[in-house]
Design brief:
About 35% of the residues lie in helices and about 15% in strands. The chain is of the alpha/beta class. It has a 7-stranded mixed sheet, with helices on both faces. The chain is globular, with a radius of gyration of 26 Å.
Length: about 475
């Protein structure tokens, strides 16, 4: 059998792979490509080491207390995701069992949210790349349903609006811009305990309102808005005006917490006015990013015009997600969690995370570190600010910056308009954030506060006569 003679270049490369240490080879003797594709290939181990080392500069995800996103998953879930990362969720004809698992998840979540469905018919919903896409889908459905009714009545459809609180997540701002919908914001009020009054939401509604937003777990403070009260107010408003304005619940953060820690709380499809819900699987659904879920009370609230049928993947594939190709691994991991944990497992994990937050709350209240913004803590989140009766020469932003020296990522930010003079810090506890880590965080918080109080003020406060540019 004849063998092709290797070129000098191939022989040299083979010797390098066998003899050269990773950091002694030519591939790592120059900076990584930043602006153009390199001309030559390199061995896998060198490419891995190059990228791996740059990622060392990222923050450690387990110490990221800013994000709601899952930062720890079980090895078995990781293995399942690794085995299925190449499955395209949209190819339902090619991967029928993955499609079946997606539908099982929709049914399970819908039942968890008390949708009106039976076991003879699949619930109405789908997986998405994240809760933001799910929010967009539910928002589009509200607009289409509103427009259909307006056209049937012979009325103008050019000025749709959507009513939210000012504590809304940015995905809804995007929704308004992308689909040309006016967003009307009810204010967050200090005198209302840094909350949005449900009455203020209803007051912004009119005949052009496609829907009203209730939030289960706000991004700013973790508040569960009183969606049951909103439902009662909207029922009265609709009866008085003859309108039929639905409620959509953004349960991105709280949707996988409330059913396990507050099962009697009425916020979901048990309420007549709630027609759709978005929830994030990669937050307290405990899946690695990214997966979200869009759900409707029943199929009558999802307009047929938003369901597209494609045949070029084999078979008839109905799809009503915005994204087309997307990974199936996260959906499989979601189902793994449902099978693995069950109701009891989710309850235990979220109870543990909430107990960490309550411990942090007690430690804060016993110190002069700060005061809690939201006393009624329903989910594993703690928002706090510096005490009003202390005249510090530093801010929560200084604290946030100093904590990064220890690896902690604790965000500092201002509250929405009408409370914009209040700056707070937020800690989100997730699976993997233990009591031991929490005690270390408090220790480092105290050290940071001690340092900042001992330092001379570095900023000069302008006098009343000073001109501020």
């Amino acid at each position: 059998m004849l063998h092709r003679k290797k070129t000098e270049k191939e022989i040299k490369q083979a010797k390098e792979e066998v003899l050269d240490p990773v950091f002694g080879g030519r591939d790592l003797m120059r900076p990584a490509p930043k602006f153009r594709l390199p001309r030559e290939e390199m061995p896998p181990r060198n490419a891995y080491q190059l990228v791996h080392d740059e990622l060392l500069l990222d923050g450690h995800s387990r110490l990221n207390l800013a994000t709601f996103v899952t930062t720890w998953i079980e090895p078995e879930a990781q293995q399942l995701m690794s085995e299925s990362f190449d499955k395209n969720m949209i190819d339902k004809d090619e991967y029928p069992q993955t499609a079946e698992i997606e539908m099982r998840c929709v049914n399970i979540i819908s039942e968890l949210f008390h949708a009106r469905s039976d076991e003879k018919e699949n619930a109405c919903g789908c997986s998405t790349i994240g809760s933001s896409e799910a929010a967009m889908l539910c928002g589009m459905a509200m607009k289409w349903n509103w427009r259909k009714k307006r056209k049937a009545q012979g009325k103008d459809t050019s000025k749709p609006n959507f009513v939210t609180g000012s504590d809304v997540q940015v995905c809804w701002e995007k929704f308004g811009v992308y689909w040309d919908i006016e967003l009307r914001h009810a204010p967050m009020k200090k005198e209302n305990g840094y909350r949005v009054a449900m009455e203020d939401l209803v007051a912004l509604c009119d005949e052009n309102t496609i829907g009203v937003l209730g939030i289960l777990g706000t991004t700013y403070t973790g508040e569960y808005q009183d969606i049951k009260k909103l439902d009662k107010l909207m029922a009265e408003y609709n009866a008085k005006t003859g309108y039929d304005i639905p409620i959509h619940v953004d349960a991105a953060s709280g949707g996988f917490v409330a059913p396990f820690l507050d099962s009697r709380l009425e916020w979901d499809f048990r309420l007549e006015g709630v027609k759709s819900i978005n929830v994030s699987g990669h937050k307290y659904g405990l899946v690695a990013p990214g997966v979200g879920w869009a759900l409707w009370k029943d199929w009558s609230y999802l307009p047929e015009e938003l369901i597209f049928h494609v045949s070029y993947l084999g078979g008839d594939m109905p799809t009503f997600a915005i994204n087309f190709s997307r990974p199936g691994a996260q959906v499989i991991a979601q189902y793994y969690n449902f099978v693995r944990l069950g109701f009891e497992g989710y309850t235990n994990i979220h109870k543990a995370s909430l107990s960490v937050i309550m411990t942090l709350k007690k430690l804060l209240e016993k110190s002069e570190l700060g005061e809690v913004v939201m006393e009624d803590i329903r989910m594993p989140l703690l928002a706090f600010k510096l005490k009003d009766n202390h005249d510090y020469d530093f801010t929560v932003y200084d604290i946030s910056g100093r904590l990064r020296r220890y690896g902690w990522q604790v965000p500092a930010y201002t509250l929405p308009k009408d409370c914009g003079d209040v700056s707070i810090l937020r800690i989100v506890a997730k699976e993997g954030f233990s009591h031991d880590l929490a005690s270390l965080l408090v220790k480092h918080l105290r050290e940071v506060m001690k340092e900042l109080k001992s330092e001379k003020p570095k900023r000069i406060k302008p006098s009343r006569e000073a001109k501020i540019c």
